[in-house]
Every structure is written in C-alpha cells, then in structure tokens.
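[job 4471] stage=fold_predict status=RUNNING
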Amino acid sequence: MQGFLQTTIRLYQQSLLAALQSLQQNWILIPVLLVFAIGMVLITALVAPLGMIGGFILGAVNAMAIGATLSLTEEAIRGGRRLRWQDIPQSMGQYFWDVISIGFMVWFPLMFLEMGLQANPYKILLTTAIFFLMFVLLNPVPEVIYQSRKGSALEVVQESYEFVLENWIEWFLPIAIALAPFGLAFFFQISSQAGRGGLHFEHLITLPLSILSQWLALLGISSNASFFILLIITPIATVFILLFRGHLFAALRGSSRRQRMFQSKMQ
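[job 4471] inference complete, writing structure tokens
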C-alpha cells in the first residue's frame, strides 16, 4: 500500500510539473479559450430562435470549438514547440467528426431512455445514476480522441472504458480530493450535467467554475469578491486542467500500475 501511494504521488508530481511547464510555454491557450467561449455564447443567442435548425448549427459550432481545443491541447502536450497564433486557424476542423460521432452515439440512447422513463416514478434517480455512470466511463474520451486517434466512435468509447477499468484510482483521485468537502450530491450534480449529450464546450468552463465557486464559498469569500476571482482564475484553471489531464493520461496509458511501482522502487 505504501509503495502504491508513493508511486501515485510521484505520478501526480510529474504530471503537475509537466502541466505547469506546458501552461507557461503555451499561455495563449487561455485567451483562445476565452474567445471560443464568448463566440459560443453569441452564436447560441443568434441561433436560439431557429429551433431545430439552430440546434444543428450550434452542434456543429460546438464540435468545431471542442475539436480545435483538443488539437491545441495536443500540440501543447507534445512539447516540441510553443503554440503560435498561426496554429489557431489550422486547428479549426480538427477532430470535428470525432466529436460529432461521439455526440450522436451518446445522444440517441439518452433520448430514448428519457422517453421510456417518462412514466417511471424513479425517473430522476435512474437518469442520475446513468448520467453518473457515463461521466465515469466516458471521462477520458477527450484524451482518447487526440492521443489514441481511434478510427470510430465505438473504438473511442471502448478504449475509454478499458482505460477507466485499469486506472480508475489514479484518474479519479484528483477530482475526488477536489470535491471531498462537498459530498456526493455535488458530484452527482456535475456528473449529470456533463453526461447530457456527449462533449459540450460549455462544460469545459462550467465544471471548473462550479468547483472553484464551491471552494470560494467554503473559504468564506464574499460573492462580490468571488465574482472577480472566478473571472480571472476560471480560464487559467480550465487550461491547466486540460493540460494536467493530458499529461496524466499519457503517463497512465504508457505504463501499467505494476511497471510504475517497479520504476518507483528502482528510483
């Protein structure tokens, strides 16, 4: 047990340092993410009156933003060179169909599920449990998309499932620590939000925002001060989380638990 703890702490230290270095070298991800977020808000307001057509347009824009974000994150994690402003136009369209296919693969079953549970008195409990399960099993999907480059949505989901089964302790321990003071209710809340309909760009911002706001409230910081703090910290935290997840996924995927423990003993 002690060896496992030491190995896991070392793993997090390495991923943390790598993420900080990537953030320092590729800070332009922060304003890029802000521009994407503002663009999503404006486009959502514009297409809202269009009904179903507006929904399709918004879905395509969402896939474009998510794909570009994953592409830029991939370049930042590689570490070969720093991101440049010229890289942003080149990232547009990257992983577009991967995000679309995953979205449809998740959306259709959920739609039929909600229709089938309309008259069920336990609908809220059942849907929350299913969204929680999806949040867990599909959590590494973004990293699988840009690091594994699988050919189909089914293969992406399968690798995500297998990765979680093998590395669930190391992968979810950081978020468990971050959410520990707020209990399972808050965890179920964010998991149900993130599980609705696949990969959504808004979740990149709202999930870190929700966690940071809870911590600021726990620390007794006033709502007025929290607003300005969140305005500054949330974009930075969002980019850092993306980079940390990417480096952690690469480290876990590149070795087994037994190999990491053996290497830790040798070092």
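[job 4471] summary: The two ends are 18 Å apart (CA to CA).
[job 4471] exit 0
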